[in-house]
Amino acid sequence: MKKCIIIGSGLGGLSTGVVLAREGFDVTILEQEAQIGGCLQCFERRGVKFETGMHFIGSARPGQTLYRLLRFLEIDGDIRLQELDRDAYDIVRLGNDEFRFPNGKEAFITKMTDYFPKEAEGIRRYVECVERVAQASSLHTLDTNNADNAISTEYQLRSINEVIDGLIADPTLRDVLVGNLPLYAARKDKTPFSTHAFIADFYNQSSFRVVGGSDNIGKALQRKLEHYGGQVLTRCKVVKILSNDASVVGVSTADGNSYEADIVISAIHPVPTLAMTDSTLIRSAFRKRMASLPNTIGIFSVYLDFKEDAMPYMNSNYYAYRQGVSPWACEDYTFGDWPRGYLYMHFCHEPNPCYARAGVILSYMRFEEMSPWLTTSVGHRGEAYETFKRERAERLIDSVERTFPNIRQCIRHYYTSTPLTYLNYTGTPEGSAYGIARDISLGVSSHVPQRTKLPGLFLTGQNINSHGILGVLVGTVVTCSDILGTEYLYQNIIKANQ
Ligand SMILES: Cc1cc2nc3c(=O)[nH]c(=O)nc-3n(C[C@H](O)[C@H](O)[C@H](O)COP(=O)(O)OP(=O)(O)OC[C@H]3O[C@@H](n4cnc5c(N)ncnc54)[C@H](O)[C@@H]3O)c2cc1C
Fold first, then answer.
1. Of 124, 130, 284, 311, which is most buried with the most CB atoms under 10 A?
2. Which of ligand 1's atoms lies nearest the C-alpha of 14?
3. Which residue has the higher pLDDT, 145 or 11?
4. For residue 314, is it within any domain?
5. pLDDT band at 144, cuts 50/70/90?
6. Pairing mode, if any, of strands 90-94 and 317-321?
7. Cβ proximity of 351 and 82 under 8 Å
8. Are residues 191 and 121 in the same domain?
9. What's the CA-to-centroid distance between 36 and ligand 1, angstroms?
10. CATH code of the domain covering residue 448
11. Per-residue pLDDT averaged across 292-306, rounded?
C-alpha cells in the first residue's frame, strides 16, 4: 500500500485523495486551516451561512461534463443542486442595458440574435467555435484517440478578444459575450480563447447553485475519502517536503511532526510548493519560471445578510458595468473610479427559495492595495484596515443600489473580505482569486506540469489546468492519470457513468 501525502484540502486535494484512496493508496491530506475545503469553505455569522469561493457550478445534469466527474467521485447523490433560471442564468448589464444568457446552444443563439439581429451569422459561428473548442479536449470525450489536439492548441494560443473580434463586428455584443469575465479574470490580448470557451460551454450546458452551501462538496469528498480509508488532518501546515538524492520521502509540518510518504501531491500553488523543497533535482530554471508566472487579480467581497423575507431570491447571476466601461477594463481601475463593475449573487439556503437570506457582491481588487497591512495577521490588522473595508463596501453597495434600489433596506448586516483574506485562508500568492493566469504570449512557458523532476512529487489543483470546479477536477484527472494510467482512469470514469 503506497503512502500518499497530499498538501491542502481544497477541491484539488480532496478529489485527488478520493481517487487514489479508492485505488488502494494510503492517503493523508494535511490542511493548514481548521476548516477543510480551501475555496469551498463557508463561514457563518449570526446564524447565516456565506460561501467564500464557489457560488455556482455548471454542466451538472446527468450525462453532462461535470456530472460525469461527480459521479466518478461518487458524490453526485450527496449534494443538492438548485438550477438557475434557464432563461437567464447570467444577466449582463452594460450601462442601462440588460442581456440575458439562456442555457442551451440554440436558445443562446436565438436570444443573442434577438438583441443583435445584424450579427446572426457571427453569433452562430461564435457559439459553434466555443462548442468545437470545448469538445476538442479528450477530457470532454473521455476518449484518448478522439481528442482534436490541433484545435486545442490553436485556441490556447489565440486570445479571447482576437477570436471574438474576428467573428463579431458589434462592439457592444463583443462586450456582452465577455460579460461574465469576472468568473475567470481574463486579460485582453493575454488570456487564451480556450479558457473562455470551456467556461462559456460549461455554464451554457446547465447552471446550478449548491443548496446549503459549497462546503457540502468538500464534506461529501471528505466522507468518501474516509470511506476508502483515507484521512484529512486539519491545523497541519506543511513547511517542508523531505527528499533524499533520488526521490521524495515525506513532509514535515509546522507543529514539528513528520510524515513519511512514497508520493507527495501538492494541491497548493507551485511557488510555495517549490519553496518547501531544496532538492537539486528541481532545476533553478524551473523554479524561476514558476515564480515568474503572473497570477490572476484578487477579489473584494461584500457578504450580505438580508432581513428575513425581505429580498426576493434572484435565481440569476448579475454582472454590471458602468456606462461606457468594458468588462476588459475593470482590472485597471483607479482609486476614484473603483468599482468599474461587479458580480452580484444570492445564496441558496433551501430548495426553491422565495427570499434570499444572504448574497455576495464581488469586484476586482489589486494586491497592491493591501500593502499597508502585509505584515499584519487576521483579526489584528488595525482600524485603518477596517475603515478601508467599510469605505469600499459602501461604494460597492452604492453601485448595486443604482440597479437594485431597495437593497439597503433589505440588508441586516454585511461582512467583507479582501485579497489578504484569501492569502491567509488559502495561501494563494497575492490573494489571487484563481491562481496562475494563462497568458498566450508565454506559450509553453506558462505550462504547469503535474509531475516534477523530483520523483514522487506531483502537483494538482487549480494551477495545473484551470480554476473552478471543472478546471480543478480536470486537473485531478490529469494528475491521477499520470499516476494510475490515462486509459485506465478514463475507462473508470466511463464505467462509473454506465
Ligand atoms: C471569490 C471566488 C469565487 C469563486 N467562485 C467560483 C464559482 O462560482 N464556481 C467555480 O466553479 N469556481 C469558483 N471559484 C474558483 C474555485 O473556488 C477554485 O478554483 C477552487 O476551489 C480551487 O481549489 P484548489 O484545491 O486548487 O485550491 P484551494 O481551494 O485554494 O485550496 C488550497 C488548500 O490548501 C491549503 N494549504 C495552503 N498551503 C498549505 C500548507 N503549506 N500546508 C497545508 N495546507 C495548505 C489551504 O488552506 C487550502 O485549504 C471562485 C474562487 C474565488 C476566489
1. 130
2. 25
3. 11
4. no
5. low
6. parallel
7. yes
8. yes
9. 10
10. 3.50.50.60
11. 97
Look at residues 204, 224, 256 and tell me which one is the last residue of a structural domain.
204
Backbone angles phi, psi at 237, to 5 degrees: -85, 120
- The set of protein residues with a Cβ atom below 6 angstroms from ligand 1 is 7-13, 30-33, 38-40, 53-57, 237-238, 267-268, 299, 362, 422, 426-428, 433-434, 461-462, 467-469, 472
| Residue 362: CA count within 13 A, CB half-sphere | 23
Structural domain includes residue 426 = no
DSSP β-bridge partners for residue 251: 241, 259
Q: Is the pLDDT of residue 149 over 90?
A: no
Which atom of ligand 1 lies nearest, measured to the CA of 470? Answer: 11
Range of the domain at 262: 3-37+214-293+443-496
- Asked, as a colleague might, if the bond just before 339 is cis with ω within 30 of 0, I would say yes
- Asked if pLDDT for residue 143 goes beyond 80, the answer is no
Q: Residue 468 has what pLDDT?
A: 96
Residue from 252, 318, 426 to probe ligand 1 pocket by mutation (most atoms less than 8 Å from CB): 426
What is the Cβ-side half-sphere exposure of residue 119, based on CA atoms within 13 angstroms?
A: 25
Q: For residue 82, report the phi and psi dihedrals to the nearest 5 degrees.
A: -120, 115
Can you tell me the distance from the alpha carbon of 249 to that of 238, in angstroms, rounded to the nearest whole number? Answer: 14
Q: Which residue minimizes the CA distance to atom 52 of ligand 1?
A: 53
Cell numbers 498538501 correspond to what residue?
7
pLDDT at 72: 97
Residue 438 pLDDT more than 90? yes
Instruction: Tell whether the model's pLDDT for residue 488 goes beyond 80.
Output: yes
| pLDDT bracket for residue 139 (50, 70, 90) | confident
CA of 162 to the centre of ligand 1 (A): 30
Final residue of a structural domain among 155, 175, 204: 204
pLDDT digits (tens, 9 = 90+) for 301-348: 999 999 999 999 999 999 999 999 999 999 999 999 999 999 999 999
**CA-CA distances (angstroms) from residue 497 to 14, 23, 65, 73, 222?**
21, 18, 11, 11, 21
Render 94-159 in DSSP notation, one character per residue. Answer: ETTEEEEE-SSHHHHHHHHHHH-GGGHHHHHHHHHHHHHHHHHSHHHHT-TTS--HHHHHHHHSSB
Query: Atom 50 in ligand 1: which residue has the minimum CA distance?
Result: 53
The C-alpha cell at 435 is: 491562481
Closest ligand 1 atom, residue 30 Cα: 43
Q: Probe ligand 1: pick from 30, 253, 268, max atoms within 8 Å of CB? A: 268
Asked if residue 406 belongs to a domain, the reply is no
Q: Best of 35, 52, 54 to mutate for ligand 1, by most ligand atoms within 8 A of CB?
A: 54
Q: Output helix, strand, coil percentages for the chain, rounded to the nearest 5.
A: 40, 20, 35
Atom from ligand 1 closest to the CA of residue 8: 34
Determine the atom of ligand 1 nearest the C-alpha atom of 461: 26
Nearest alpha-carbon partner for 331 in 293, 290, 368, 372: 368
